[in-house]
Amino acid sequence: MLILVSYDVSTETAAGRRRLRHVAKVCLNYGQRVQKSVFECKVNLAQMETLKAELLDEIDEKEDSLRIYRITEPLEKNLMEFGKFKAVDFEDTLIV
After folding, report:
1. Which CATH architecture does the domain made up of 2-75 adopt?
2. What does DSSP say about strands 2-8 and 31-35: parallel, antiparallel, or unpaired?
3. Is 31 helix (H, G, I), strand (E, B) or coil?
4. Sign of CA dihedral 4, 53, 95, 93
5. CA angle 14, 11, 50 (to 5 degrees)
6. Per-residue pLDDT for 93 more than 80?
7. 8 is in an annotated binding site
8. What per-residue confidence (pLDDT) applies to 94?
């Protein structure tokens, strides 16, 4: 399944800046960055649960926000791309 992960981490403190780096690193282990705080991830259900748990371990729910959207298939009907950025073909091997 394709999911979209977006987050907003408060960076007013050193701890917040650390959380931001850690959240981005977790997301990079599962997918590709499409904007500064938005990642596309091709995962199965177990990987999604693991990703969610890892992200919830990193964020401070009182200061930060996290959203995970499941993009329903068929992708051709639910995903439109414009501009110079082109997504990685998730059917190929993705090495992180």
Report:
1. 2-Layer Sandwich (3.30)
2. unpaired
3. strand
4. negative
5. 95
6. no
7. yes
8. 47
